[in-house]
Specification:
single chain, alpha/beta, globular, about 90 residues, two-stranded parallel sheet
């Protein structure tokens, strides 16, 4: 994702609506909860990069829980994702 976002040319998203989200293993337990404040969520960083490229936020930032590192969205997250696309941007 980092390489993709870095590869977006400056100004290339001017006039485009953009949205940023991340996925998370939930609930955050054990040592992971200590690393989270250090590394943070990636949605805000993705959103910043999209705005710097000229994009206009179309939806509020969101994070969705997944079942595992290669799993699908947890139950109920698909509905949250659909609702997030209708939420106004901050």
């Amino acid at each position: 994702m980092r390489d993709f976002v870095r590869g977006i040319a400056a100004g290339s998203l001017r006039g485009a609506w953009v949205a940023a989200f991340d996925t998370r293993l939930a609930p955050v337990r054990g040592l992971w909860r200590f690393f989270l404040p250090v590394f943070g969520r990636v949605a805000p960083r993705i959103a910043s990069a999209l705005r710097r490229s000229g994009g206009t936020p179309a939806a509020a930032l969101a994070g969705f829980a997944v079942e595992g590192t290669e799993g699908s969205l947890r139950a109920g997250e698909e509905a949250r994702a659909a609702a997030a696309t209708r939420a106004p941007a901050d």
